[in-house]
Design a protein that fits this description.
Strand order of the largest sheet: 1-2-3-5-4
Number of strands: 5
Shape: elongated
Helix content: 55-70%
Largest sheet: 5 strands, mixed
CATH architecture of the largest domain: 2-Layer Sandwich
Mean pLDDT: 77
CATH superfamily of the largest domain: Histidine kinase-like ATPase, C-terminal domain
């Protein structure tokens, strides 16, 4: 109130700088704009004397409006910076998606062509050295497995199913591959009704993929359940495993979160305005809750 009184009393530019400092302090303390409005309103009401005439009251209100506009300038600058950072992050994710598609094409196309050349060379070898047929057959069987792994890696990087059939079929294909490689059972329940925006489906797919890989690396789980829930303004995805669990407070530093892939998951969600919550207890499994708002 003292700063506002000073400005209304003719404090000039120095008093306006005090308004900016007040806004900066409030922002750093975590106060919202509505709280700042309440404080400003209370101060202004106490300074508006009943004895003021109409012209004097009008001038006080106009000056107070300038003071308040200066006090919320830090909020406007912060919002602008956040918006620019979010746009840059969105562009970065788009670049990553393009790069993933390029790598997937290389795995599926270029590596596939090399495998075809190896198959032809092995076939020629069996014709020239019939006694090596059994050995060539063993090598061919290994190559078949490599080809299958390359196909699955290509899909996981840039899943064509996600674009063609949607989120759930892509997740089922991902789950089948994990089951073959690790024995992990993945159940998908309560699938979302209707289609989701492509950006939301892509985000949910990659977050679920990272979460499932975490389970295979860290959880020592046998089963994971993925289920979805729609609410009026968004979608939730729950991923729950029956593994060993952990204490979430122990991985809240950047190094630990990086080891669990949580930083990448949070950054992906931030682009679409989403959030990630972790519910876990040592010895009782882990539940990840992903929330993404949907634009009207």
């Amino acid at each position: 109130m003292a700063a506002l009184r000073n400005y209304l009393g003719g404090g000039g530019e120095a008093a306006l700088q005090q308004a900016y400092s007040i806004g900066r302090t409030a922002l750093d303390a975590g106060a919202g704009v509505i709280e700042l409005v309440g404080v400003h309103h209370a101060a202004l009401r106490s300074l508006l004397s009943p004895e003021f005439g109409t012209d004097e009251r009008r001038k006080v209100l106009a000056d107070a409006a300038l003071f308040f506009a200066e006090s919320i300038a830090p909020y406007e600058m912060t919002y602008g910076g956040f918006r620019e950072a979010n746009m840059a992050l969105r562009h970065f994710n788009e670049v990553l998606e393009l790069e993933a598609k390029r790598i997937a094409h290389a795995l599926h196309g270029e590596a596939g062509q090399l495998l075809v050349a190896v198959y032809i060379a092995l076939d020629q070898m069996t014709q020239e050295v019939p006694s090596a047929k059994s050995h060539v057959l063993a090598v061919t069987q290994l190559l078949d497995k490599i080809e299958e792994q390359l196909r699955r890696l290509s899909h996981e990087l840039a899943p064509a199913l996600l674009n063609d059939l949607g989120l759930v079929p892509a997740l089922r294909y991902l789950a089948d591959g994990l089951a073959q490689r690790s024995g992990l059972r993945v159940n998908i329940e309560d699938v979302p009704e209707g289609s989701l925006p492509k950006r939301v489906e892509t985000t949910l797919y990659h977050v679920a993929k990272e979460a499932l890989h975490n389970v295979t690396k860290h959880a020592r789980a046998e089963e994971v359940t993925i289920r979805f829930e729609r609410w009026p303004h968004g979608v939730r995805c729950f991923l729950e495993d029956d593994g060993v669990g952990f204490e979430p407070t122990k991985i809240q530093d950047d190094h630990a979160e990086k080891g669990f892939g949580l930083i990448g998951m949070r950054e992906r969600l931030k682009v679409v305005g989403g959030q990630l919550r972790i519910n876990s207890l040592s010895g009782h499994g882990t539940e990840l809750v992903v929330e993404i708002p949907l634009e009207e």
